[in-house]
Amino acid sequence: MPWSNQPGGPWSTGPRGPWGSGPQQQGPRPPNLEEFLRRSQDKLRRFLPGNFGGRGIALIALVIVALWGFSGFFRVEPDELGAVMRFGKFVRVVEPGLNYHLPYPVESVQTVPALRVMKTDVGMRTSGGGEIDVPEESLMLTGDENIVDVDFSVLWKVDPNRIGDYLFNIQNPESTVKAVAESAMREIIGRSNIQPVLTGARQNIETAVQELMQKTLDSYDAGVLVQQVQLQKVDPPSQVIDSFRDVQAAQSDLERLQNEAQTYANRVVPEAKGRAARILQDAEAYRAQVIANAKGQSSRFLQVYDQYKKAPDVTRQRMYLDAMEHILSGTNKTFIDTGKQGPGVVPYLPLNELGKSPGTPPAGGKQ
After folding, report:
1. Helix 173-191 to helix 202-219 angle, to the nearest 10 degrees?
2. How far apart are CA 122 and CA 188, in angstroms?
3. In terms of domains, do 157 and 224 share one?
4. Quick one: pLDDT at residue 304?
5. Residue 142, in any domain of the structure
6. Is 96 domain-assigned?
7. Does 184 map to a domain?
């Protein structure tokens, strides 16, 4: 072999190289290729008996081909997918585990974390176990020209059906997702007033931002699926947060007082309506009673008058007795003796009432 007997090779014209002065190198010198080849030949001679001829070359070639063929085996991690490219063109996707592709340079593989959910924070950074606010990302303008500080996170993953788009259509996927997320959030916040943003519109904002992000990334053919948008903090700027909290407290007090007033009105108004209805019903009953009583008295008077015309003396005596009975029915009974021994007063002793309880009034009198 020509290299075995010429230690310096054709370029061994001295330490400066064939063109005179070589580049001045500092630090450790690179290994000598010729020396490496010479040592490799010596090691091969030890394993190959006899003359190192055509048979040895064929055996070396066979070993090299075998090693080249075995170099096509590769492993894909459980949370990854492999993208196989043939001469630089994407051809197929392989699942996690041990796989094979035609050895380089025919085919090559790139692994993509397509089964892993990744998280991108906007408006904040995690450092040393704490969060650092990034105002240039988090401060946004609302539709009613107020400034709000919004920190949020985006959970996203690679679309397993669009590995090729993810590899070749976007250069830096995480930066692209972050830029699209910030742009979508600014657009949604810019359409909203500050009051709903600070109170009850968080779910609507998250859904709207997710849909807008997915639409934008699909227009880029980015091969990214947006799983979820999570609002971490939505507050006014730190310089005016105390004033905003005072406004929020006043608004809460206003709503509480309105609710209490409505509750009182809901309780008092039905009670007043019930009392009014009861009074009207009592008045209507009294009216009906008076009219019926008047009609009855009028009818009785007419009937008595008809009898009086027929028998005046009898009717007059009967009317007198009825009137006296009505008057004396409510008084204690007393007998006046007008006999021969002179007038005298004899009290009435109701013997038939003595057996009754003291709480029961005697017949014909009051208790």
Report:
1. 130
2. 15
3. yes
4. 83
5. yes
6. yes
7. yes
Find the distance separating the first CA and the last CA of the chain, reported in whole Å: 153
Residue-number span of the structural domain to which 95 is assigned: 73-112
**What is the pLDDT, as a whole number, of residue 302?**
87
Dihedral (C-alpha) 234, 236, 242, 248: value to the nearest 10 degrees? Answer: -70
Q: How far apart are CA 330 and CA 229, in angstroms?
A: 92
In this structure, are 231 and 124 located in the same domain? yes
243 vs 257: CA distance, rounded Å: 21
Query: Quick one: pLDDT at residue 16?
Result: 43
For residues 80 and 189, membership in a common domain is answered with no
Residue type, 95: E
Please say whether the beta carbons of 47 and 76 come within 8 A: no
Q: Decide: helix, strand or coil at residue 12.
A: coil
Pair 167, 141 in one domain: yes
What distance in Å separates the CA atoms of residue 240 and residue 249, rounded to the nearest whole number?
14
286 found inside a domain? no
Question: Mean pLDDT in runs of 10 for the chain (367 residues)?
Answer: 41 41 44 66 61 65 74 72 77 74 74 83 80 85 86 90 82 90 92 83 89 92 90 81 78 89 91 92 93 90 84 84 79 64 61 60 50
- Rounded Cα–Cα distance for residues 84 and 160 (Å): 14
CA distance 133 to 67: 53
Contacts of 329 by beta carbon, 8 Å cutoff, 6+ apart = 364
In this structure, the answer to whether residues 108 and 172 fall within a common structural domain is: no
pLDDT of residue 210: 93
Alpha helices, DSSP H, located in 240-355: 241-310, 312-328
Residue 47 has what DSSP assignment? Answer: H
Domain boundary residue among 209, 239, 269? 239
**pLDDT for position 283:** 94
